[in-house]
Write a structure and sequence with these properties.
The complex is a heterodimer of chains A (420) and B (600).
Chain A (H helix, E strand, L loop, with lengths): L13 H22 L13 H21 L3 H5 L1 H18 L1 E3 L2 E7 L2 E3 L2 H17 L8 H20 L3 H5 L4 H7 L5 H18 L2 H18 L7 H25 L2 H10 L9 H13 L12 H4 L11 H33 L4 H25 L17 H19 L6
Antiparallel strand pairs in A: 1-2, 2-3
Helix pairs in contact in A: 1-2, 1-15, 2-17, 4-5, 4-6, 5-6, 5-16, 5-17, 8-16, 9-11, 10-11, 13-15, 15-16, 16-17
Chain B lengths: L1 H7 L1 H26 L2 H10 E6 L6 E2 L5 E13 L9 H8 L3 H14 L5 E8 H8 L8 E10 L6 H4 L2 E3 L2 H6 L8 E3 L2 H5 L1 H5 L3 E7 L5 E4 L15 E3 L3 H10 L5 E7 L4 E8 L11 H11 L8 H4 L9 H10 L31 H7 L2 H12 L6 H14 L22 H8 L23 H13 L2 E3 L4 E4 L2 E2 L4 E3 L7 H13 L16 E7 L7 E8 L6 E7 L5 H18 L5 H9 L4
Helix pairs in contact in B: 11-21, 14-16, 15-20
The chains are: A mainly alpha (420), B alpha+beta (600).
The complex binds zinc ion.
């Protein structure tokens, strides 16, 4: 039981709360700048995004109070029911939801829309933390691996079915959590090799890549020949990697939709498509790149103000930062995120309960993937995958989702001395 | 717990991943924001939109300061396809008076050009249609109007001379980088020749626009805007009232009138009939009307005054007389006998006293006289024989401006033709022809081709006794007076006296072919002619100038299929000269008779 206390924020980590407040408020100012228009200059106008975002911010603080007053045992005890409910909501939205730009992932409630996928991250984090936090679990066991991977894959697959590829990809973040909880580091290296092979296959013909692999293996074999390596191992490696290259090639040509292929080709510089997929990134780069070192000043960004950048208050919100605040502003925002992420990792490591620690890692990993894909996309280092920048991007579901995600951890952390 | 401790160290791997990603982002950001200036440049070109400002074209005045060509405001309907929303096609079609398929074609063309940039949807909407459209335009997002100017012709006359203005074609854009698609350019006549003066200089206004091309204000308070420079005004040599009068006289007839001020080479009137109203070739109706005019069997687009060429018959006799005097084969007192219709090899059309001297031969238009003169020229003897004498004759003839184009500001004009010796050598063999073979030339027939403009210039040369200023149609660009080259013929001035006397007798003499049309108080010199027309009735032809003692106007008239010269061409010429010299005509009944005659 929590000790009776007058202050529900007792023992909470002030650094995290400040970082949260700074990012949310900075985000709000940037949303204002992104949609700024002399005709609607009142910052409280709820017809426009920044007015609506203010409502989301206020309601988020209500959520924070609710979480702070909740018994933290609730999150662990009810993680499975919460998970179950969210999974039901995820499936239901496919049938009952409103279609927005090709994906059926939104519930329409009055004038506002809610995206259950944003809450699936919280539910999955809770359930993974509960499952792995159990002292009986050991990730070295095959059954544990299978179950935890299933817990992660279920929401991932449903969200894919909603046609929300971006949100589904975020569940890849749990690789970092599993790695921390005992999965071999080989998985990260394999992942890296797979990404490199993937890119090479798309850039060059598959036979060139396979020839490259063969050459590399022969060189390695020759280098280690004194140690008498097993030739069988090399043949197996060759078979697996070649098979991977073949399947990537097949998937790219046959499985991906033409617009997805274009996005990847644009990113790899194989295509320039300034009217279609390439247009967003091109305009985004122009906006950020024109910011210079010091930026153009608040509300002085021409690219964002005149709507050259699409989705500028949601997925491309970082453009406003880059254009109006320049390199300095970008540095501060990226710094704030990294500070936040490292702080969560540090706090996670000081937890006595495995549940809290695993949950903390989940929060950090999910936010990191959002941060990496979103900013990477705006500066042309990642394909155009529409996911929000945590706390910054306009959107109620996203803000609520991340607020819950973070403050559940802050609450858990504030009670780290109690065994829960 | 060892396993846990071992895993705790993995936090550094994860933190390292975070830091590596953040560093890559910051390096990339540093590159695009601080090092590369490519994006700043692109950002500027993104938001700056250059709005072209079209200057008004120069106004064209006639010689008396009357406006012949002015400007009228017109509007191009522009479209930005990306902004078009909830389009009520039926209503817009109705407003613009367009049919559905034409509407769709225009929309498709605009979309193919650019979704984001503006292009012309419908060009040159008149002021009146615009007023109507403007009230409803707000209901059609993505459409806006751009002011332009259209030409307007207060006098529906002189179409061939003035030319017209139309949108530039690709060839014109390739030739001159000043032009951009959608610009207007002079397409003929004065509009084309004086294009660079008339067009002025386009201005540029730089404005800031958003991605939907909506105007967001001026760029740095217009510091980099380029003002437009209005086109220069021109003063033409034409007397527009005389031009209108000439066109009225020529209505329902095929032919031309060219009037020139002898002292200056200024063209006072240049009528080609059938003609058309220049107002037909303005704005949107232009292409439709142009096609109609081009298909008209009467060929109204054809400028007969400068492009049609005829064997000018008896009016050419003076040339042969002058060349004969210059080459010394005759003197004014030389007489040749004539036996009227029995003359050989060229007969005379009527009987007259014989033998005549040069003056009498011109007054009576005696065919045998000029045949004898021509034969004397060609068979003069001397080195080279026939061929050399013909070359000499041709050289003298061409010094009158025949067989060549004028170095002038005139619209497309034909050179006519004075056949070369090689032409005859080819047909008859080098020694196979002599004066007899080409005898038609002696009385202005045969292979000879002379345009009405050249014919009028011949009258000028006679009035000036041997020289002419290249005929032209513009005298001033703003206040700058233009100069055109002066040309002198090979003929000595005094040789003109008997020719002039002969032409004087044509009006004032007791046997003159134009004596019935003598003008009150104005003495004139003239010469009738008839062009034999194997396809129908002969063409009536006349040249004249007046006043005889101090020529102010020289004129040539060709009326096709009108028979003998005196019937139509002479009264028309006298009416024109009277109108120009006195401002009114003394025989209004004749004027009415000519105006109402239909010879088509
Ligand atoms: Zn005779």
């Amino acid at each position: 039981m929590p000790r009776p206390s007058k202050n529900i924020f007792q023992n909470t980590d002030r650094t995290l709360i400040w970082l949260y407040a700074i990012l949310v408020i900075a985000g709000w100012f940037n949303i204002y700048a992104a949609v700024y228009d002399e005709k609607h200059s009142s910052i409280f106008d709820i017809d426009v995004n920044y007015g609506k975002q203010l409502i989301w911010i206020v309601t988020s603080s209500v959520l924070i109070f609710v979480i702070m007053m909740t018994d933290p045992k609730f999150f662990q005890t009810f993680s499975y029911p919460i998970y179950g409910l969210v999974m039901i909501a995820l499936v239901a939205v496919i049938f009952m939801g409103r279609e927005i730009s090709g994906s059926k992932s939104w519930f329409q409630i009055g004038g506002f829309s809610l995206q259950p996928a944003e809450f699936a991250k919280l539910a999955t984090s809770l359930v993974v933390a509960t499952y792995l936090g159990n002292i009986k679990r050991n990730l070295e066991r095959f059954s544990t691996k299978v179950i935890v991977i299933l817990l992660i894959l279920v929401p991932c697959v449903i969200i894919l079915a909603q046609n929300e590829t971006g949100s589904a990809l975020v569940f890849g973040a749990f690789v970092l959590v599993l790695f921390r909880e005992g999965l071999s580091g080989v998985i990260l290296i394999l992942g890296l090799v797979a990404i490199i092979l993937f890119i090479l296959t798309l850039l060059f013909h598959k036979f060139i890549v396979i020839a490259l692999i063969a050459t590399l293996l022969v060189v390695i074999y020759y280098y280690f020949r004194k140690k008498k390596p097993k030739i069988f191992l090399f043949i197996a490696l060759f078979t697996v990697t070649s098979g991977f290259v073949y399947s990537v090639d097949y998937a790219f040509e046959k499985v991906l939709q033409p617009h997805q292929k274009t996005r990847i080709n644009v990113l790899l510089g194989k295509e320039t498509d300034l009217r279609g997929a390439g247009y967003n990134v091109h305009q985004s780069l122009i906006a950020i790149g024109s910011g210079g070192f010091w930026g153009k000043g608040y509300l002085n960004g021409t690219q964002t103000k005149y709507n050259y950048v699409p989705e500028q208050s949601t997925d491309f919100i970082f453009c406003t930062v880059g254009e109006e605040w320049g390199f300095i502003g970008s540095l501060l925002v990226i710094g704030a995120y990294i500070f936040l992420l490292i702080r969560i990792i540090q706090l996670a490591e000081r937890q006595r309960s495995a549940f809290s620690r695993i949950y903390g890692y989940s929060v950090a990993s999910i936010m990191f993937v959002h941060f990496m894909i979103n900013i990477g996309m705006t500066i042309g280092l990642m394909p155009v995958i529409g996911i929000p920048l945590p706390f910054f991007s306009y959107g109620g579901s996203s803000l609520w989702g991340f607020t819950l995600l973070l403050f559940v951890f802050i609450k858990l952390d504030s009670l780290r001395h109690d065994l829960i | 717990m060892a396993r846990k401790d071992h895993n705790a160290a993995k936090r550094y791997v994860i933190i390292t991943i975070f830091l590596v990603v953040a560093s890559v982002f910051l390096l990339r950001l540093f590159y695009i924001q601080v090092i590369s200036d490519k994006y700043s440049f692109l950002a500027e070109s993104n938001v700056r939109r250059i709005i072209t400002q079209y200057p008004p074209r120069g106004v064209i005045y006639d010689r008396n300061g009357k406006k012949m060509v002015t400007n009228e405001a017109a509007y191009d309907l522009m479209i930005i396809p990306r902004q078009v929303k909830d389009l009520d096609t039926t209503e817009l079609c109705h407003l613009l008076d367009l049919d559905r398929s034409s509407f769709d074609t225009r929309l498709k063309k605009a979309r193919e050009f650019s979704l984001y940039k503006s292009s012309i949807f419908l060009e040159q909407i008149s002021q009146r249609s615009y007023g109507y459209l403007q009230e409803k335009l707000f209901r059609f997002p993505g459409f806006f109007v751009q002011p332009r100017t259209l030409r307007q012709y207060p006098y529906p006359a002189a179409a061939h001379l003035l030319g017209y203005v139309g949108e530039v074609n690709q060839k014109e854009i390739d030739k001159d980088t000043y032009y951009k698609s959608g610009d207007y350019i002079g397409k003929g006549g004065i509009e084309k020749f004086y294009e660079e003066s008339l067009r002025g200089v386009k201005g540029e206004k730089i404005i800031l626009v958003d991605v939907f091309n909506r105007e967001k204000g001026s760029f740095e308070n217009g510091r980099f805007d380029k003002p437009q420079v209005p086109g220069l005004d021109l003063t033409s040599t034409l007397d527009i009232e005389l031009q209108v009068y000439g066109e009225a006289l020529m209505s329902n007839k095929r032919g031309s009138i060219v009037a020139i001020e002898p002292a200056t080479g200024e063209i006072l009137a240049l009528v080609s009939s059938p003609t058309y109203d220049p107002n037909l070739l303005i704005g949107r109706i232009r292409s439709k009307n142009f096609a109609l005019l081009a298909a008209d069997p009467l060929k109204p687009l054809f400028n007969r005054a400068t492009q049609a060429a005829y064997p000018t018959g008896s009016t050419f006799k003076m040339i042969n007389g002058l060349v004969g005097l210059q080459m010394g084969v005759i003197i004014p007192q030389t007489r040749f006998g004539c036996s009227g219709k029995g003359s050989s090899p060229i007969a005379c059309s009527h009987s007259h006293a014989t033998p005549l001297d040069l003056v009498g031969a011109i007054e009576q238009s005696c065919n045998p006289y000029f045949w004898n003169t021509f034969r004397a020229i060609i068979e003069r003897g001397g080195e080279g024989g026939t061929n050399a004498n013909y070359v000499k004759w041709r050289e003298h003839v061409m010094s009158f401006g025949f067989g060549e184009r004028f170095d002038s500001d005139l619209p497309a004009h034909s050179k006519g033709n004075i056949p070369s010796e090689n032409y005859y050598n080819k047909i008859y063999g080098p020694k196979g022809w002599k004066s007899m073979t080409i005898r038609s030339l002696s009385i202005g027939q045969g292979e000879l081709l002379i345009t009405p403009l050249q014919l009028a210039n011949q009258a000028v040369i006679i009035a000036n006794k041997g020289f002419y200023i290249t005929p032209h149609i513009v005298k001033k660009v703003e206040d700058h007076v233009l100069e055109f080259p002066k040309k002198t013929t090979n003929i000595k001035p005094e040789y003109f006296d008997p020719v002039i006397e002969g032409m004087y007798e044509v009006f004032q003499g007791s046997h003159g072919t134009a004596r019935w049309y003598m003008m009150e108080g104005i003495t004139a010199c003239g010469k009738t002619g008839t062009v034999e027309n194997p396809h129908g009735k002969d063409h009536s032809l006349f040249i004249a100038y007046a006043p005889a003692e101090n020529p102010k106007i020289a004129i040539a008239i060709v009326v096709e299929n009108a028979g003998f010269g005196a019937t139509w061409a002479v009264p028309m010429a006298t009416l024109m000269m009277e109108k120009y010299l006195k401002g009114k005509v003394s025989r209004p009944e004749k004027e009415e008779e000519i105006k109402s005659a239909n010879l088509l």
